[in-house]
Amino acid sequence: MRIFKRILDKARPHFEENGRFSRFHNVFQAMDNFLFAAPLKVEQRPFIRDPLDVKRYMSLVITALVPCLIASVYFFGWRVLLLLIVSYVVGGIVEVLFAVIRKEEVNEGFLVTGFIFPLILPPGLPLWIAAVGILFGVLVGKEVFGGTGRNLFNPALVGRVFLALGYPAAMTSNWIEPASGGWGRIVMPIAQAAGDAVTSATPLVAAKGSVYAAPLDLFLGRVLGSAGETSALAILLGGIFLLIVGVASWRTVFSIILSFTVFNVVVRAAAPQLVGPLWFNLLAGSFLFGTFFMATDPVSGPVTRTGKWGYGILIGGVTMLIRTFSGFVEGVMFAILLGNIFAPLIDEAVIRARMRRYAREG
């Protein structure tokens, strides 16, 4: 790393003001911050602002996503990595272009968005459709709001919903039959995995006919589904890691699972033909992935502790409502986007209630 540091130090004057490449100063600064990120001194307290805070956060989330990526490659093949590359290249270009236009630094926030997006897509999806999705997600879901930290919605979910509504046939007919035993699809060529795309029913679709996948298959990931969402084991490994390091809010996670569970139990007791067993609904589809990796996004979710409870209850309940009474078999992505809309209102209600209480006590 010292060699790279010396190279960057020698190149720095050319990227500073009046340098030959000053127009690309923000790109150079993003590279420097990502690799080294020296602390910045300020005049007023707090005296040290550590840019590594953002990088640590992004690094921890990506670390938590690694089990899902490994499981997706094992079950669906190396083509998942092509989706990841497309996501980073296309989304990264949009990010850099807006940074240059706004004359701002390139933010590391896209590292997580670009990693999550391919994991919530069918593994056999054409690469050009994945490119359109990440382009729309970053552009409309984040940049129109001002960039990282200002976005109202989770950008990866915006891109996913756009594809679900704009390309419904492609999003429901490019599943890959999961491999099992031995090395799975790790030893298969990319072309062979891409040629194995099928249109069979996913577990949630099959459940509409009261056909439920085996619990062990759902837990391990031996079912049709989006690349990184089928293995409950991989998701739990990463999700629990996020809870332990304090990146994901346990209040949000617990309240989503609690409200989802209560709704499932109540409806199944009243009308068992409408909803499947609790174990199935918890393990099938995008529920766990959305709960741990997207609903806990600190930018698009509430900031108050009490607000996180209301936010989670809303997402869990709406997810079950959509799964049970709508034409969509999956409701997590719509529920989280709805939660994103109400997050500022929830925070405002919590803060106003707290201020009134303080006023009465004062």
Structural class: mainly alpha
Please count the beta strands (DSSP E, at least 2 residues each). 4
Q: Percent range for helical residues?
A: 55-70%
Gyration radius from CA atoms, angstroms: 22 Å
What does this structure look like?
The chain has 362 residues and is mostly helical. It folds into two domains: 2-49, no CATH class; 52-353, no CATH class. It is built from 17 helices and four strands. It has helices at 2-15, 25-35, 52-76, 79-102, 110-119, 127-141, 155-166, 168-171, 190-194, 203-207, 215-220, 232-245, 250-270, 278-283, 287-294, 305-325, 332-361; strands spanning 40-41, 48-49, 175-176, 197-198. The strands form two sheets. It has a two-stranded antiparallel ribbon. The chain has a two-stranded antiparallel sheet with strand order 3-4. Strand 1 and strand 2 form a beta hairpin. Helix 3 (52-76) packs antiparallel against helix 12 (232-245), helix 4 (79-102) packs parallel to helix 6 and helix 6 (127-141) packs across helix 7. The longest helix has 30 residues, at 332-361. It is globular and about 70 Å long. The N and C termini lie far apart (56 Å). Residues 45-49 have low confidence and may be disordered.
Brief sketch in words of this structure:
This protein has 362 residues and is mainly α.
Features:
2 domains, globular, two-stranded antiparallel sheet, 17 helices, 64% helix, mainly alpha, 362 residues
